[in-house]
Amino acid sequence: MASGTADRSHATVEQRQHRMRSFAVLCVLTCRLVGQTPTPHNSPILRGVVLECEQRPVGEIAIRAADNEVLRYQFDRKTYVERDEHMIEPARLIPGEKVEIVSDRAPGFVLRYARTIHVVQPVAPVKPQRTGLPRPYNSRTDAARTGTLTFSGVIYRINSEKFVIHTREAGDLSILLRNDTRYLEDGQVVDLAQLKPNLRVFVRAGKDLYNEVEAYQVIWGSILAPR
Asked: In this structure, is residue 3 part of a structural domain?
């Protein structure tokens, strides 16, 4: 009996020691986890560069963080997006823009939900390069633009992209040619090739996104001659 009691006592001591060692290891691991900083996946605020954004009201946006890690967020119609102090749609975000995202875990979303997206460094729009000759106005398929600006003067210089006219009011003025610029000679639609230096013309024009004047209609011939 004494031997059996001693064996049981010895086993009980070993079990207690095992539980104490397990508890100590668990405490160490817990302390280490508590001391760790949150990863970007769990950070509520993150700054990064837009890689891509789905062009729809509800979708996903991919951001490259400072450590080059790519993170994805979900957005919807309630996501507040701001650029230059103006509210915009998420789909209007441009790859390359630096943004700050405030996000959290929301029910029904697999990824972190973007509450707000603030553009802190917009990307300047790239002006497209004009290539080839402008296409003349097609009266059957194209709608004529009227514009809000009008000029009259004599053509001083012309090439495939623009022409310069001398006006009394504004002096020499450079006007861009569009692919759908309409050319009218004596009231008839003609090609760009008919537009020559020294012609007195009347121009209906407007300004593009880069604040440059572009021609919508160029008119010359007997229709402009005084009666």
From this structure: no
Q: What are the pLDDT tens digits along the chain (227 aa)?
A: 555 555 555 556 566 666 656 555 555 454 444 444 444 456 789 999 999 999 888 999 999 998 889 999 999 999 999 998 889 999 889 999 999 999 998 888 889 999 999 999 887 655 555 555 555 555 445 555 667 889 999 998 998 889 999 988 878 999 999 988 889 888 888 988 889 999 999 999 988 878 889 999 999 987 555 54
Q: Say if 52 falls within a structural domain.
A: yes
Question: 104 and 155 share a domain?
Answer: no
CATH code where residue 93 lies = 2.40.50.320
Radius of gyration for the alpha carbons in the chain, expressed in angstroms and rounded: 35
Q: How far apart are CA 197 and CA 90, in angstroms?
A: 48
Helix (H) or strand (E) holding 183: strand 171-185
Q: Is 215 helix (H, G, I), strand (E, B) or coil?
A: strand
Q: Tell if the pTM clears 0.70, that is, is over it.
A: no
Residues of the domain holding 215: 149-224
